[in-house]
Amino acid sequence: MPERAKCAFTGVSIDIAWGSFAQRDMANRRRKEGSRRPNAPERRLVIGPIRWSRRMIRAGFFLSFGLTLLSANALAQDMELPRGIPPVQDSFVKHHMSPLGRPCLEIQGYARPELVNKNIYQHLIKVGNSCGQTIQVQVCYYKTEECILMSAPPYEKKEAVLGIFPALKRFQFEAKEKF
Questions:
Q1: Is the pTM of this model over 0.70?
Q2: What is the largest CA-CA distance in the chain?
């Protein structure tokens, strides 16, 4: 038996002949599902001369979010300082202490290559003072008399060159605070 159906989009009435009960049941199920129209036209947002669909907006958002994360990660890697070399310390060295019981000075050593010749390294010492008093520090190459005297102002960081050597990337140094 043919059935009469009206197309939702064009409004044209057509006759449908069913070959089996299974096809008819599937059609009835689709009709009962109601408002879901699989071939409904996609809504578009008009911005300027371009019409944007939801899918395009969503893809653009995730693409821009991903690129932002990648660029932030790249910038963070550029800004990250290499881990410094800690000073070699004897166990009974006296330190200035903060009111919370932490050492006032944070001392790190770094080797930085020269711009012109990459095989020549500057040995840098960075000192950070987290206390409210100026602290004098004598920094020497380990077990030598080659030393520099640094003054660490309160709540500031300071950098000084301990020495310059060719092909010597790793170095050891010791720091003694003056009282």
A1: no
A2: 109
